[in-house]
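User: Study the chain.
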Amino acid sequence: MIRRNDTVLVITGKDRGKRGTVVRVLPKEHRIVIDGINMAKRHTKPSVKQPQGGIVDFPAPLSVSNVMIICAACNKPTRIAMKLTADGKVRTCKHCKAALTQDTGKKSE
């Protein structure tokens, strides 16, 4: 269960060994978009947004099975374990058992 703003390590493909931050999650397709990873080129016509047109680089979606999440506590690629606590379900690291914290963007009071 990978979420936006998680740091992940690519384990297969042309970008194997690179780390990046998840920008977008596409759960129905089981794919994610990682900033600066799996870059593709698109040839674009001139438009209002791009009056010059030309070749544009963009990060293409990557399969979730090709990445592993990086634990912030032990700095290792790990699988995710779900642990039930009083606050609800928490994602934890399989190696060090630390909670994989996530900035949800909600303000705490």
